[in-house]
User: Fold this.
Amino acid sequence: MLFPLLCALALLMATAVPASAAPPGSPYSSGQNGTVVRTDRGLVRGVSHGSYTTFSGVPYAAPPTGRLRWRAPSPAAPWHGVRDATTAAQPCVQMPAPGAGAVIGSEDCLYLNVTTPASRPAGQKRPVLVWLHGGAFLGGSGNDYDAGSLAVRGDAVVVTVNYRLGIFGYFGHPELGSAPPFGLADQQAALRWVKANAERFGGDPAGVTLFGESAGALGICAHLTSPTAAGLFRRAVLQSGSCFTSFPRGALGPGTPAYEPFASQHAVQAAGTEAARGLGCATGGRDEVLACLRGQSTDRLATTQLMQSFNRPAFGNPLLPVAPDLAMTSGRFHRVPVLQGTNHDEMRMFVGLSLAAFPIRTEEDYRARLVDAFGPAAPAVEERYPAAHHPTPALAWAAVLTDRSFTCTTLEAARAMAAHAPGLPLYGYEFNDADAPVLAGLPANPGFPYGAAHGFEMPFLFTSFPTGKPLDDAQRELSDRMTGYWTNFARTGDPNSPGAPLWPVQRPSSPDTRSVQSLAPGPGGIRPVDVGAAHHCSFWGRVAR
Assistant:
Protein backbone atom coordinates (compact mmCIF):
# COMPACT_ATOMS: atom_id res chain seq x y z
CA MET A 1 0.00 0.00 0.00
CA LEU A 2 2.90 2.38 0.69
CA PHE A 3 3.96 2.59 -2.96
CA PRO A 4 0.60 3.64 -4.46
CA LEU A 5 -0.08 6.02 -1.57
CA LEU A 6 3.24 7.82 -2.05
CA CYS A 7 2.61 7.79 -5.78
CA ALA A 8 -0.77 9.44 -5.27
CA LEU A 9 0.86 12.07 -3.05
CA ALA A 10 3.55 12.72 -5.65
CA LEU A 11 0.97 13.08 -8.41
CA LEU A 12 -1.01 15.58 -6.36
CA MET A 13 1.95 17.69 -5.74
CA ALA A 14 2.77 16.97 -11.92
CA THR A 15 11.12 31.12 -33.90
CA ALA A 16 14.41 32.84 -32.95
CA VAL A 17 15.13 36.53 -33.31
CA PRO A 18 18.53 38.03 -33.95
CA ALA A 19 20.81 38.56 -30.98
CA SER A 20 20.72 42.27 -31.71
CA ALA A 21 17.15 42.32 -30.35
CA ALA A 22 18.67 43.00 -26.93
CA PRO A 23 20.84 46.12 -27.11
CA PRO A 24 24.33 45.79 -25.64
CA GLY A 25 24.54 46.98 -22.06
CA SER A 26 20.84 46.37 -21.35
CA PRO A 27 19.36 43.03 -20.26
CA TYR A 28 15.90 43.96 -21.57
CA SER A 29 14.35 44.39 -24.97
CA SER A 30 10.61 44.54 -25.65
CA GLY A 31 8.80 44.55 -28.94
CA GLN A 32 6.78 42.46 -31.35
CA ASN A 33 8.86 39.37 -30.53
CA GLY A 34 8.18 39.58 -26.82
CA THR A 35 10.63 40.34 -24.01
CA VAL A 36 14.25 39.31 -24.33
CA VAL A 37 16.60 39.12 -21.36
CA ARG A 38 20.34 38.62 -21.48
CA THR A 39 21.27 35.92 -18.94
CA ASP A 40 24.82 34.91 -18.09
CA ARG A 41 24.53 32.01 -20.57
CA GLY A 42 22.73 33.77 -23.41
CA LEU A 43 19.57 35.57 -24.49
CA VAL A 44 16.10 34.25 -23.65
CA ARG A 45 12.77 35.40 -25.03
CA GLY A 46 9.75 35.18 -22.74
CA VAL A 47 6.06 35.81 -23.27
CA SER A 48 3.95 38.70 -22.02
CA HIS A 49 0.71 38.03 -20.16
CA GLY A 50 -0.21 41.69 -19.80
CA SER A 51 0.61 42.48 -16.18
CA TYR A 52 3.46 39.98 -15.98
CA THR A 53 6.01 38.18 -18.15
CA THR A 54 7.14 34.58 -17.95
CA PHE A 55 10.37 32.96 -19.03
CA SER A 56 9.89 29.19 -19.05
CA GLY A 57 12.28 26.30 -19.50
CA VAL A 58 15.46 28.28 -18.80
CA PRO A 59 18.39 25.90 -18.18
CA TYR A 60 20.27 26.44 -14.92
CA ALA A 61 22.54 23.40 -15.30
CA ALA A 62 23.67 20.94 -17.95
CA PRO A 63 21.41 17.92 -18.63
CA PRO A 64 22.37 15.26 -16.03
CA THR A 65 22.35 12.46 -18.60
CA GLY A 66 24.85 9.90 -19.82
CA ARG A 67 28.16 10.31 -18.01
CA LEU A 68 26.61 13.18 -15.96
CA ARG A 69 23.95 10.94 -14.40
CA TRP A 70 24.54 10.81 -10.62
CA ARG A 71 26.98 13.68 -10.64
CA ALA A 72 26.66 17.10 -9.07
CA PRO A 73 25.12 19.55 -11.56
CA SER A 74 27.43 21.24 -14.05
CA PRO A 75 26.86 24.73 -15.49
CA ALA A 76 24.62 24.97 -18.54
CA ALA A 77 26.41 25.50 -21.81
CA PRO A 78 26.19 29.00 -23.32
CA TRP A 79 24.14 29.43 -26.49
CA HIS A 80 24.11 31.79 -29.46
CA GLY A 81 21.14 33.79 -30.67
CA VAL A 82 17.93 33.99 -28.65
CA ARG A 83 16.63 30.92 -26.84
CA ASP A 84 12.86 30.47 -26.84
CA ALA A 85 11.57 30.59 -23.25
CA THR A 86 7.85 30.61 -23.98
CA THR A 87 7.18 26.94 -23.14
CA ALA A 88 8.01 24.95 -20.02
CA ALA A 89 10.59 22.18 -20.25
CA GLN A 90 9.80 18.59 -19.40
CA PRO A 91 9.50 17.80 -15.68
CA CYS A 92 12.06 15.54 -14.07
CA VAL A 93 11.27 11.82 -14.25
CA GLN A 94 8.37 11.08 -11.90
CA MET A 95 7.47 7.99 -9.93
CA PRO A 96 5.03 6.15 -12.23
CA ALA A 97 1.35 6.08 -11.42
CA PRO A 98 -0.18 2.63 -10.84
CA GLY A 99 -0.80 1.02 -14.22
CA ALA A 100 1.01 3.77 -16.12
CA GLY A 101 2.80 2.84 -19.30
CA ALA A 102 5.43 5.27 -20.53
CA VAL A 103 7.73 7.13 -18.17
CA ILE A 104 6.54 10.64 -17.30
CA GLY A 105 9.21 13.31 -17.55
CA SER A 106 12.79 13.38 -18.71
CA GLU A 107 16.26 13.13 -17.21
CA ASP A 108 17.05 16.32 -19.15
CA CYS A 109 15.09 18.44 -16.71
CA LEU A 110 17.25 20.99 -14.90
CA TYR A 111 15.27 24.04 -15.93
CA LEU A 112 13.51 26.83 -14.10
CA ASN A 113 10.77 29.33 -14.80
CA VAL A 114 10.91 33.05 -14.02
CA THR A 115 7.83 35.24 -13.54
CA THR A 116 8.26 38.98 -13.21
CA PRO A 117 5.84 41.91 -13.19
CA ALA A 118 5.65 43.60 -16.59
CA SER A 119 6.40 47.04 -15.16
CA ARG A 120 9.99 47.97 -14.47
CA PRO A 121 11.00 48.19 -10.82
CA ALA A 122 10.53 51.70 -9.45
CA GLY A 123 13.99 52.41 -8.06
CA GLN A 124 14.57 49.46 -5.76
CA LYS A 125 15.12 45.97 -7.06
CA ARG A 126 12.32 43.50 -6.39
CA PRO A 127 12.58 40.67 -3.87
CA VAL A 128 13.12 37.25 -5.41
CA LEU A 129 11.18 34.21 -4.21
CA VAL A 130 12.51 30.79 -5.28
CA TRP A 131 9.86 28.03 -5.03
CA LEU A 132 10.74 24.40 -4.29
CA HIS A 133 7.79 22.15 -5.06
CA GLY A 134 6.56 19.25 -2.96
CA GLY A 135 5.81 15.66 -3.93
CA ALA A 136 7.70 13.39 -1.51
CA PHE A 137 10.93 13.82 -3.55
CA LEU A 138 9.19 11.52 -6.07
CA GLY A 139 6.97 13.78 -8.16
CA GLY A 140 5.98 17.31 -8.95
CA SER A 141 7.50 20.09 -11.00
CA GLY A 142 8.07 23.81 -10.87
CA ASN A 143 5.98 23.95 -14.03
CA ASP A 144 2.85 23.15 -11.98
CA TYR A 145 2.79 26.57 -10.30
CA ASP A 146 1.48 29.65 -12.09
CA ALA A 147 3.18 32.48 -10.21
CA GLY A 148 1.66 35.38 -12.15
CA SER A 149 -0.73 36.54 -9.45
CA LEU A 150 1.87 36.18 -6.71
CA ALA A 151 4.42 38.18 -8.71
CA VAL A 152 2.01 40.99 -9.58
CA ARG A 153 0.23 41.34 -6.24
CA GLY A 154 3.49 41.03 -4.31
CA ASP A 155 5.61 43.06 -6.78
CA ALA A 156 8.20 40.29 -6.72
CA VAL A 157 10.19 38.07 -9.05
CA VAL A 158 9.19 34.42 -8.59
CA VAL A 159 11.33 31.49 -9.75
CA THR A 160 10.03 27.91 -9.79
CA VAL A 161 12.55 25.08 -10.07
CA ASN A 162 12.69 21.52 -11.37
CA TYR A 163 15.09 19.20 -9.55
CA ARG A 164 15.94 15.50 -9.86
CA LEU A 165 13.60 13.05 -8.12
CA GLY A 166 13.60 9.47 -6.87
CA ILE A 167 16.48 7.27 -7.95
CA PHE A 168 17.79 10.01 -10.28
CA GLY A 169 18.03 12.53 -7.44
CA TYR A 170 18.83 10.52 -4.31
CA PHE A 171 20.68 7.37 -5.39
CA GLY A 172 23.84 6.43 -3.54
CA HIS A 173 26.48 3.73 -4.00
CA PRO A 174 29.89 3.05 -2.43
CA GLU A 175 31.53 3.71 -5.81
CA LEU A 176 30.01 7.22 -5.83
CA GLY A 177 31.79 7.97 -2.56
CA SER A 178 30.58 11.00 -0.65
CA ALA A 179 28.49 12.31 -3.52
CA PRO A 180 25.79 14.76 -2.37
CA PRO A 181 22.04 14.22 -2.64
CA PHE A 182 21.79 15.23 -6.28
CA GLY A 183 18.31 16.74 -6.04
CA LEU A 184 19.46 19.06 -3.25
CA ALA A 185 22.60 19.90 -5.21
CA ASP A 186 20.33 20.84 -8.12
CA GLN A 187 18.43 23.24 -5.86
CA GLN A 188 21.67 24.90 -4.81
CA ALA A 189 22.75 25.17 -8.45
CA ALA A 190 19.45 26.90 -9.20
CA LEU A 191 20.12 29.33 -6.34
CA ARG A 192 23.54 30.11 -7.78
CA TRP A 193 21.86 30.79 -11.14
CA VAL A 194 19.40 33.11 -9.41
CA LYS A 195 22.20 35.01 -7.68
CA ALA A 196 23.93 35.48 -11.04
CA ASN A 197 20.82 36.47 -13.00
CA ALA A 198 18.21 37.97 -10.67
CA GLU A 199 19.14 41.57 -11.45
CA ARG A 200 18.66 40.94 -15.16
CA PHE A 201 14.98 40.23 -14.42
CA GLY A 202 14.57 43.21 -12.09
CA GLY A 203 15.25 41.20 -8.94
CA ASP A 204 17.60 41.74 -6.03
CA PRO A 205 20.35 39.08 -5.95
CA ALA A 206 20.95 39.96 -2.30
CA GLY A 207 17.27 39.51 -1.46
CA VAL A 208 16.57 35.88 -2.32
CA THR A 209 13.95 34.02 -0.26
CA LEU A 210 13.58 30.26 -0.50
CA PHE A 211 10.02 29.05 -0.05
CA GLY A 212 8.54 25.61 -0.49
CA GLU A 213 5.92 23.15 0.67
CA SER A 214 6.15 19.58 1.97
CA ALA A 215 9.25 18.01 0.34
CA GLY A 216 10.15 21.52 -0.81
CA ALA A 217 10.13 22.67 2.81
CA LEU A 218 12.23 19.65 3.80
CA GLY A 219 14.72 20.69 1.13
CA ILE A 220 14.85 24.17 2.65
CA CYS A 221 15.47 22.61 6.06
CA ALA A 222 18.46 20.83 4.50
CA HIS A 223 19.78 24.08 2.99
CA LEU A 224 19.41 25.85 6.35
CA THR A 225 21.89 23.30 7.75
CA SER A 226 24.07 22.86 4.63
CA PRO A 227 27.53 24.49 4.62
CA THR A 228 27.46 24.65 0.82
CA ALA A 229 24.28 26.78 0.88
CA ALA A 230 25.94 29.62 2.78
CA GLY A 231 25.12 32.96 1.17
CA LEU A 232 22.71 31.51 -1.41
CA PHE A 233 19.53 32.82 0.23
CA ARG A 234 18.67 35.50 2.74
CA ARG A 235 15.33 34.30 4.12
CA ALA A 236 13.32 31.08 4.23
CA VAL A 237 9.64 30.10 4.28
CA LEU A 238 8.83 26.47 5.15
CA GLN A 239 5.26 25.32 4.54
CA SER A 240 4.23 21.99 6.09
CA GLY A 241 7.68 20.57 6.61
CA SER A 242 10.47 21.19 9.13
CA CYS A 243 13.77 19.69 10.23
CA PHE A 244 11.87 17.61 12.80
CA THR A 245 9.04 16.30 10.61
CA SER A 246 8.57 12.52 10.81
CA PHE A 247 5.78 9.94 10.70
CA PRO A 248 5.26 7.07 13.15
CA ARG A 249 4.89 3.47 12.06
CA GLY A 250 1.57 2.86 10.35
CA ALA A 251 0.88 6.50 9.50
CA LEU A 252 0.53 5.73 5.78
CA GLY A 253 -1.27 2.43 6.33
CA PRO A 254 -1.19 -0.49 8.78
CA GLY A 255 2.29 -1.96 9.03
CA THR A 256 4.02 0.69 6.95
CA PRO A 257 7.38 1.69 8.43
CA ALA A 258 8.07 4.89 10.30
CA TYR A 259 9.22 7.71 8.05
CA GLU A 260 12.21 9.96 8.58
CA PRO A 261 12.80 12.30 5.63
CA PHE A 262 16.61 12.01 5.66
CA ALA A 263 18.80 8.90 5.67
CA SER A 264 22.46 8.24 6.45
CA GLN A 265 24.92 8.03 3.58
CA HIS A 266 25.68 4.47 4.66
CA ALA A 267 22.00 3.43 4.45
CA VAL A 268 21.57 4.99 1.02
CA GLN A 269 24.76 3.38 -0.26
CA ALA A 270 23.63 -0.01 1.06
CA ALA A 271 20.32 0.38 -0.78
CA GLY A 272 22.27 1.38 -3.89
CA THR A 273 24.43 -1.73 -3.67
CA GLU A 274 21.31 -3.88 -3.52
CA ALA A 275 19.74 -2.02 -6.45
CA ALA A 276 22.92 -2.38 -8.51
CA ARG A 277 22.87 -6.12 -7.88
CA GLY A 278 19.30 -6.32 -9.16
CA LEU A 279 20.28 -4.33 -12.25
CA GLY A 280 23.21 -6.64 -13.01
CA CYS A 281 25.81 -4.01 -12.14
CA ALA A 282 27.53 -5.62 -9.16
CA THR A 283 30.76 -6.96 -10.66
CA GLY A 284 33.98 -5.36 -11.85
CA GLY A 285 35.92 -2.36 -10.64
CA ARG A 286 34.62 1.11 -9.87
CA ASP A 287 34.60 2.28 -13.48
CA GLU A 288 32.81 -0.85 -14.69
CA VAL A 289 30.11 -0.67 -12.00
CA LEU A 290 29.39 3.01 -12.61
CA ALA A 291 29.46 2.58 -16.39
CA CYS A 292 26.94 -0.25 -16.06
CA LEU A 293 24.66 1.83 -13.83
CA ARG A 294 24.90 4.91 -16.05
CA GLY A 295 24.20 2.73 -19.06
CA GLN A 296 20.79 1.65 -17.74
CA SER A 297 17.81 3.06 -19.61
CA THR A 298 15.57 5.64 -17.98
CA ASP A 299 12.66 3.18 -18.23
CA ARG A 300 14.55 0.48 -16.37
CA LEU A 301 15.36 2.82 -13.48
CA ALA A 302 12.04 4.66 -13.24
CA THR A 303 10.11 1.82 -11.62
CA THR A 304 7.91 2.27 -8.57
CA GLN A 305 10.22 0.08 -6.50
CA LEU A 306 13.45 1.85 -7.42
CA MET A 307 12.02 5.37 -7.35
CA GLN A 308 10.47 4.89 -3.92
CA SER A 309 13.64 3.24 -2.59
CA PHE A 310 15.56 6.48 -3.16
CA ASN A 311 13.44 9.41 -2.01
CA ARG A 312 15.33 10.36 1.16
CA PRO A 313 18.28 12.77 0.86
CA ALA A 314 21.44 11.40 2.43
CA PHE A 315 23.44 13.07 5.19
CA GLY A 316 27.11 12.36 5.86
CA ASN A 317 28.51 14.21 2.85
CA PRO A 318 29.89 17.71 2.19
CA LEU A 319 26.47 19.14 1.27
CA LEU A 320 24.71 17.66 4.32
CA PRO A 321 27.31 16.62 6.90
CA VAL A 322 24.87 15.59 9.65
CA ALA A 323 21.16 14.89 9.94
CA PRO A 324 19.30 18.23 9.77
CA ASP A 325 17.45 17.71 13.07
CA LEU A 326 20.75 17.11 14.87
CA ALA A 327 22.33 20.08 13.11
CA MET A 328 19.43 22.27 14.18
CA THR A 329 19.55 21.00 17.77
CA SER A 330 23.27 21.72 18.01
CA GLY A 331 22.98 25.20 16.47
CA ARG A 332 24.57 24.40 13.12
CA PHE A 333 22.23 26.34 10.86
CA HIS A 334 22.34 29.58 8.88
CA ARG A 335 21.12 32.61 10.80
CA VAL A 336 18.48 33.87 8.40
CA PRO A 337 14.90 35.01 9.19
CA VAL A 338 12.49 32.09 9.02
CA LEU A 339 8.73 31.93 8.52
CA GLN A 340 7.34 28.44 8.95
CA GLY A 341 4.03 26.82 9.67
CA THR A 342 1.52 24.07 9.14
CA ASN A 343 -2.12 23.50 8.25
CA HIS A 344 -4.69 22.76 10.93
CA ASP A 345 -5.68 19.36 9.47
CA GLU A 346 -2.45 18.28 7.71
CA MET A 347 -2.85 14.52 7.93
CA ARG A 348 -6.42 14.41 6.67
CA MET A 349 -4.95 14.42 3.17
CA PHE A 350 -2.80 11.34 3.84
CA VAL A 351 -5.56 9.53 5.75
CA GLY A 352 -8.13 10.43 3.10
CA LEU A 353 -5.95 8.86 0.42
CA SER A 354 -5.82 5.54 2.28
CA LEU A 355 -9.37 5.18 3.68
CA ALA A 356 -10.67 3.14 0.77
CA ALA A 357 -7.98 0.51 1.36
CA PHE A 358 -7.78 0.83 5.14
CA PRO A 359 -11.07 2.14 6.55
CA ILE A 360 -11.27 3.36 10.14
CA ARG A 361 -14.95 2.88 10.93
CA THR A 362 -15.01 1.91 14.60
CA GLU A 363 -13.23 2.65 17.84
CA GLU A 364 -11.66 -0.81 17.54
CA ASP A 365 -10.20 0.15 14.15
CA TYR A 366 -8.89 3.38 15.66
CA ARG A 367 -7.41 1.61 18.67
CA ALA A 368 -5.64 -0.89 16.42
CA ARG A 369 -4.01 1.95 14.49
CA LEU A 370 -2.87 3.58 17.74
CA VAL A 371 -1.30 0.33 18.94
CA ASP A 372 0.44 -0.14 15.58
CA ALA A 373 1.86 3.39 15.72
CA PHE A 374 2.64 3.92 19.39
CA GLY A 375 2.88 0.52 21.04
CA PRO A 376 2.93 0.84 24.86
CA ALA A 377 2.07 4.56 24.62
CA ALA A 378 -1.17 3.86 22.72
CA PRO A 379 -3.45 3.99 25.82
CA ALA A 380 -2.08 7.41 26.77
CA VAL A 381 -2.63 8.68 23.22
CA GLU A 382 -6.18 7.33 23.21
CA GLU A 383 -6.88 8.99 26.54
CA ARG A 384 -5.68 12.32 25.12
CA TYR A 385 -7.54 11.80 21.82
CA PRO A 386 -10.69 9.76 22.61
CA ALA A 387 -12.63 8.85 19.49
CA ALA A 388 -15.82 10.14 21.13
CA HIS A 389 -14.39 13.67 21.09
CA HIS A 390 -14.19 13.65 17.28
CA PRO A 391 -16.93 13.31 14.66
CA THR A 392 -15.53 9.96 13.48
CA PRO A 393 -12.69 7.60 14.48
CA ALA A 394 -10.97 8.39 11.17
CA LEU A 395 -10.91 12.10 12.01
CA ALA A 396 -9.54 11.29 15.46
CA TRP A 397 -6.70 9.32 13.84
CA ALA A 398 -5.96 12.23 11.47
CA ALA A 399 -5.85 14.64 14.44
CA VAL A 400 -3.35 12.41 16.26
CA LEU A 401 -1.05 12.28 13.25
CA THR A 402 -1.37 16.00 12.47
CA ASP A 403 -0.31 16.98 15.97
CA ARG A 404 2.44 14.40 16.36
CA SER A 405 3.96 14.65 12.88
CA PHE A 406 3.47 18.26 11.77
CA THR A 407 2.30 20.89 14.25
CA CYS A 408 4.39 19.93 17.26
CA THR A 409 7.51 19.05 15.29
CA THR A 410 7.38 22.47 13.63
CA LEU A 411 7.19 24.14 17.04
CA GLU A 412 10.13 21.97 18.10
CA ALA A 413 12.15 23.33 15.17
CA ALA A 414 11.28 26.89 16.19
CA ARG A 415 12.41 26.18 19.76
CA ALA A 416 15.73 24.81 18.51
CA MET A 417 16.41 27.88 16.38
CA ALA A 418 15.36 30.27 19.14
CA ALA A 419 17.61 28.50 21.67
CA HIS A 420 20.74 29.09 19.59
CA ALA A 421 19.81 32.43 18.01
CA PRO A 422 17.54 34.29 20.45
CA GLY A 423 17.38 37.44 18.32
CA LEU A 424 16.64 35.63 15.06
CA PRO A 425 13.36 36.80 13.47
CA LEU A 426 11.07 33.76 13.58
CA TYR A 427 7.44 33.77 12.47
CA GLY A 428 4.96 30.90 12.74
CA TYR A 429 1.56 30.34 11.17
CA GLU A 430 -1.30 27.88 11.05
CA PHE A 431 -3.47 27.86 7.94
CA ASN A 432 -6.97 27.10 9.19
CA ASP A 433 -9.65 27.41 6.53
CA ALA A 434 -12.03 24.55 7.34
CA ASP A 435 -13.73 25.03 3.96
CA ALA A 436 -10.60 25.36 1.81
CA PRO A 437 -11.05 24.11 -1.76
CA VAL A 438 -10.14 20.44 -2.07
CA LEU A 439 -7.12 19.78 -4.27
CA ALA A 440 -7.90 18.05 -7.54
CA GLY A 441 -7.44 14.28 -7.50
CA LEU A 442 -8.28 13.59 -3.86
CA PRO A 443 -10.99 10.96 -3.29
CA ALA A 444 -14.29 11.95 -1.69
CA ASN A 445 -14.85 10.10 1.59
CA PRO A 446 -18.36 10.48 3.11
CA GLY A 447 -18.18 11.88 6.62
CA PHE A 448 -14.52 12.80 6.21
CA PRO A 449 -14.10 16.50 5.33
CA TYR A 450 -10.55 17.46 4.38
CA GLY A 451 -10.66 20.81 6.18
CA ALA A 452 -7.30 22.59 6.07
CA ALA A 453 -5.34 19.53 4.94
CA HIS A 454 -1.79 19.17 3.66
CA GLY A 455 -1.17 21.44 0.68
CA PHE A 456 -4.52 23.21 0.90
CA GLU A 457 -2.89 26.62 1.40
CA MET A 458 -1.30 26.52 -2.05
CA PRO A 459 -4.32 27.85 -4.01
CA PHE A 460 -4.17 30.91 -1.76
CA LEU A 461 -0.64 31.69 -3.01
CA PHE A 462 -0.82 30.22 -6.52
CA THR A 463 -4.37 31.16 -7.42
CA SER A 464 -4.64 28.93 -10.52
CA PHE A 465 -3.71 25.79 -8.57
CA PRO A 466 -6.24 23.07 -9.54
CA THR A 467 -9.09 22.61 -7.08
CA GLY A 468 -12.74 21.61 -7.15
CA LYS A 469 -14.04 25.16 -6.74
CA PRO A 470 -12.79 28.74 -6.91
CA LEU A 471 -12.06 30.86 -3.85
CA ASP A 472 -15.03 32.80 -2.50
CA ASP A 473 -14.85 36.49 -1.51
CA ALA A 474 -13.60 35.85 2.04
CA GLN A 475 -11.01 33.37 0.78
CA ARG A 476 -9.80 35.80 -1.87
CA GLU A 477 -9.31 38.38 0.87
CA LEU A 478 -7.30 35.81 2.85
CA SER A 479 -5.30 35.04 -0.30
CA ASP A 480 -4.47 38.75 -0.65
CA ARG A 481 -3.35 38.89 2.99
CA MET A 482 -1.18 35.78 2.63
CA THR A 483 0.41 37.08 -0.56
CA GLY A 484 1.19 40.32 1.26
CA TYR A 485 2.64 38.52 4.27
CA TRP A 486 4.83 36.21 2.17
CA THR A 487 6.17 38.94 -0.11
CA ASN A 488 6.66 41.47 2.69
CA PHE A 489 8.70 38.83 4.49
CA ALA A 490 10.72 38.30 1.31
CA ARG A 491 11.26 42.05 1.01
CA THR A 492 12.16 42.90 4.61
CA GLY A 493 12.39 39.77 6.76
CA ASP A 494 9.15 40.80 8.50
CA PRO A 495 5.71 39.77 7.15
CA ASN A 496 3.97 42.81 8.61
CA SER A 497 2.79 45.82 6.63
CA PRO A 498 0.55 48.82 7.41
CA GLY A 499 -3.15 47.93 7.52
CA ALA A 500 -2.70 44.17 7.93
CA PRO A 501 -3.39 42.32 11.21
CA LEU A 502 -0.18 42.25 13.23
CA TRP A 503 1.88 39.07 12.94
CA PRO A 504 3.90 38.66 16.16
CA VAL A 505 7.47 37.43 16.31
CA GLN A 506 7.50 33.80 17.43
CA ARG A 507 8.94 33.26 20.90
CA PRO A 508 8.56 29.53 21.61
CA SER A 509 9.98 29.79 25.14
CA SER A 510 7.93 32.83 26.16
CA PRO A 511 5.12 32.49 28.74
CA ASP A 512 2.86 34.07 26.12
CA THR A 513 2.83 31.34 23.48
CA ARG A 514 0.12 32.91 21.32
CA SER A 515 2.76 33.80 18.77
CA VAL A 516 1.66 31.70 15.81
CA GLN A 517 -0.56 33.52 13.35
CA SER A 518 -3.84 31.81 12.49
CA LEU A 519 -4.67 32.30 8.81
CA ALA A 520 -8.38 31.79 8.23
CA PRO A 521 -11.03 33.68 6.23
CA GLY A 522 -13.64 35.95 7.72
CA PRO A 523 -13.70 38.41 10.64
CA GLY A 524 -11.16 37.50 13.31
CA GLY A 525 -9.70 34.72 11.20
CA ILE A 526 -6.23 36.26 11.24
CA ARG A 527 -5.04 36.43 14.83
CA PRO A 528 -2.33 35.06 17.15
CA VAL A 529 -3.09 31.61 18.58
CA ASP A 530 -1.49 29.11 20.92
CA VAL A 531 -1.14 26.08 18.63
CA GLY A 532 0.97 24.27 21.19
CA ALA A 533 -1.99 24.03 23.55
CA ALA A 534 -4.55 23.39 20.80
CA HIS A 535 -2.49 20.50 19.40
CA HIS A 536 -1.31 19.01 22.73
CA CYS A 537 2.37 19.61 22.09
CA SER A 538 3.35 19.30 25.75
CA PHE A 539 1.89 15.80 25.66
CA TRP A 540 3.83 14.89 22.52
CA GLY A 541 6.99 16.22 24.13
CA ARG A 542 6.58 13.48 26.75
CA VAL A 543 5.70 10.66 24.31
CA ALA A 544 8.67 8.99 22.71
CA ARG A 545 8.74 9.56 18.95
Observations:
- Residues 5 and 54 are 34 Å apart (CA to CA).
